[in-house]
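Practice problem: Aspartic proteinase-like protein 2
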Amino acid sequence: MAPRAALLLAALALLLLLLLPAPACSAPAAAAATGVFQVRRKFPARADAGGGNISALRAHDGRRHGRLLATADIPLGGLGLPTDTGLYFTEIHLGTPPKRYYVQVDTGSDILWVNCISCDQCPRKSGLGLDLTLYDPKASSSGSTVWCDQGFCVATYGGKLPGCSDKVPCEYKVMYGDGSSTTGFFVTDALHFDQVTGDGQTQPGNGSVTFGCGAQQGGDLGSSNQALDGIIGFGQANTSVLSQLAAASKVKKIFAHCLDTIKGGGIFAIGNVVQPKVKTTPLIADMPHYNVNLKSIDVGGTTLQLPAHVFETGEKKGTIIDSGTTLTYLPELVFKEVMLAVFNKHQDIKFHDVQDFLCFQYSGSVDDGFPTINFHFEDDLALHVYPHEYFFANGNDVYCVGFQNGGSQSKDGKDIVLMGDLVLSNKLVVYDLENQVIGWTDYNCKC
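Answer key — C-alpha cells:
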C-alpha cells in the first residue's frame, strides 16, 4: 500500500482498512506511522445542497439529540443508531477467516457491535448500495462467546448479572427515547488491520477485541433505508475498541478525526498524534459526552457580552463536542447575539425560510463578506469558525445558516451548546483520553 498524506497524524503503527481512495496531496509524509482509517459520509452536508438534503440534516440531528440526551438502561453509555445517529462509516474485518463489515463511526458510542446471524429483523440490504454481512460466531475459528461470569461482563455491569450461571452469555440491551432498541450478547474475536511500518508500507496484523453480536433490533434499526452492519464507538468507556487496545498496551488511548463535509469523507486515526501539534482544553470529568468549558465568543474580534450563566456546565447545560451532530446548536440568547453580530454589516439582506433554516441571497464570497466566529475555551484554546463553515450553500447564490436556535429544538437541549461536524470540518480534532483533554487545529481534511 502506498504512503498516504493522512500518515501525518502519526504514531501507533496500526492501520485499519482504508475504504476510500486517497486524493493527491502535496503534504510530506511523517517519519512516524499511525493507525488511520478513511470514512465515507452518508450525504454531503453543504455542496449543492437541495431542499430535501437540508431536511435530512435537520431530521438526523433531531433523532441524534433524542438519543444523545436520553438515558440508556444499562451503563454502556449512549449506543448509536447506524442508520441515522452518526454520519460517517467505514469498513472493518472481523473473524477467522476475516469477513467485511460496514460500521458507523461515532464518537458518542462506547462499543463495537455488528448484526448477528441469529437476528431475524436485521436488514439484509442497504439503501446505501452496500452488501451487508451478518456475523456468525460459529463460522470464526477465533471467535468465542463472552459468558456472564467472565471479567468483561462483570466489569461492564459492576458485578454479576441477576440469574447468571455457568455458560450463560453476557447480554446487552439498550432502549432509546425514540423507541429504537438493540439487544444481543458479547463475543470476542479477531479484528484485522494493516500494521504500518516505518517506511509507510504495511503488513498484516490483528488484535483480539470484545464486541456486541446484535441478535434483535427494534424500531428504525431494522430498516434497510440507510442500513449498515453495525457501529464502532469511540466513547470513553472501557468497552470501546480503543479502550480495549489501550488496556492491552497496543495503543495509547488517543484518537483523532479529520472530516471533509464538502465531498463527504475524512479519516479517523488511533494513537498519538505527532504532527501537527495541537493546543488542548480539559475535558470535564464525570460527564457522559465530550464536555468542555466554553469561556467566551467573539465575532470578527469583538467579544459578545453574554451573561455568565450561559457558559456554566452541569446537567442539561454546558458545551458538548459531537461529530455525530451535523449543525451547531446555541442557546436562544447566544444564537440571537451571534446572528446580530454576523449580519451587523448586512442589514439590507432579506431572509427567507427553507424548511425552518434561515436563508438569504448573496452573490459574493461569504468568506470575504462575513466575519469569523471564534469560540474561546479553557486554557486559551480557540475554535475558529469561518463563514463557509457556518453557512452552507443551498442552490445558486443562496446560503443558509448552519447555526440553530437550541431553544426551539428540544426542552432538554435548550441550554446546551452542541458543536457538530460543520464547525469541526477541515480541522484535525484530537481526543487525548489519557490526559483527559481535547484539541484541534486547522487542517486540509481532503488529504
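Discussion: The chain has two domains: 5-270, 279-442. Students who identified this feature from the C-alpha cells alone can consider the problem solved.
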